[in-house]
Design brief:
Blueprint: E1 12-13, E2 28-29, E3 39-42, H1 46-57, E4 62-65, H2 74-77, E5 81-82, H3 92-103, H4 105-109, E6 120-124, H5 127-140, E7 148-150, H6 152-157, E8 168-172, E9 176-177, H7 180-193, E10 197-199, E11 204-210, E12 213-219, E13 222-225, E14 229-231, H8 237-242, E15 251-260, E16 270-272, E17 277-280, E18 286-289, E19 294-297, H9 300-304, H10 306-316, E20 320-323, H11 326-337, H12 339-348, H13 358-371, E21 380-390, E22 397-400, E23 407-411, H14 417-433
Parallel strand pairs: 3-4, 3-14, 4-10, 6-16, 14-23, 19-20
Antiparallel strand pairs: 1-2, 5-9, 6-8, 7-8, 11-12, 12-13, 15-18, 15-21, 16-17, 17-18, 22-23
Helix pairs in contact: 1-7, 1-14, 3-14, 11-12
Amino acid sequence: MGRTENARPIGTLIARGPSLGPPTDPVGSSDTQPTSSDVVVIGGGIIGLSTALFLAREGLSVVVCEKGQFAGEQSSRNWGWVRRMGRDPRELPLVVEAMRLWGEMETLVGRDVGFRRAGILYLCENDADVAHHQGWIARAGAYALDTRIISGPELARLLPGAARTFHAALYTSSDGRAEPQKAAPAIAEAAARDGAVLLADCAVRSVETSGGAISAVVTERGRIATKRVVIAGGVWSSQICRTLGLRLPQLGIRSSVLRTAPIDGGPEGAAWGPRFAYRKRLDGGYTIADGSRSLHDVVPDSFRFLGDFLPILKREWRHMRLGFGAPLVDGLRNCLRGPEGAAMAFEATRTLDPQPRQRQLAAAYAALQQAFPVFKNVPVVQQWAGMIDATPDAVPVISTVGTHPGLVIATGFSGHGFGIGPAAGRLAADLVTGAPPIVDPQPFRYERFIDGTRPQPTTGV
């Protein structure tokens, strides 16, 4: 995808290396690393970049350090859904703010990132599915807004070309979609225009403290003096926290996706079903995935955090597959290297680029073609996978850390990071500056994972 007309280069454009990931809009990288900054953000995904944007607009000097390319990992590899429907009730106040910001996104960043309120459906096969979704409406309360159960002709109108009749669906007309390969790069460019310094291919090796408080960040290019750091490293965040002696239970979930060539006559919005999920793209094609099964590649942290994740594993075991292979071997090798192993891993893996599960994608696409014959003979343009940063309760950490003054953690979005990203960045920025937070940050506190609180994952949709 090329740069749009009104985008302006900042510094040197960094070319993407070989990757299975989708091509993103280019983002400029500064040629020079500052020696000091008010805030250093570790991680150049949508969370870190949104944080940087709001901090820069408050007049703070901000440096964003990204070990690879901006939005090179999950921020450009997700489904592109922007939804309130089905969220954990603890997230709903933040999601409402995120939906508001998405509605203002073109003005906020000066570019169309493909946000459209095209509606999202969760397809129901039977009455049990309907009852399950009605339970979410009850839990959401006033936050359910326009979400409702639909069926019959109303549902059929939202599924043009469907070869079968679906029992019912949970539907939110105000939910929508946006383009992951455009959104985070546009936020990055906006942050740079407001003064943020963006550093691609710049891994952070350590965070220094003095008297227990943050004092500097050391990158592969040198030292940046700072009193405030935001860790927004996605699936890498737990490893970064470990270099500071912090225990953050977080694991990666591999999610595979494909995109099709443009087609005419398909459904306009997005939908999830037991065997497939789809989302119409701005280019006229579709992003397609299996909405029911995920893969966890076993790593040393899988054993370290097993007790933390047992509640959610017991609930989701039917939908989870385990992989044993290179990630486990590489993780064990880094553990044997000690603290230096983490820094080596950050620099050795510039872009986490897992292999997509092609058989799973083929089955999902076949199921979609059976339900919607319009997709038959439509070629697959690309397949890729990304790594979701999951927490034991599937709720993110957006939090200060009492033992480390000046540190804010923003990670563990558990597959919700793209849609919630702008508001999560705003909340992280509020925590950095001490401004009144956009929403109550209590549900996202880091300490819930170290103070004996039992993880409480809610029943998902």
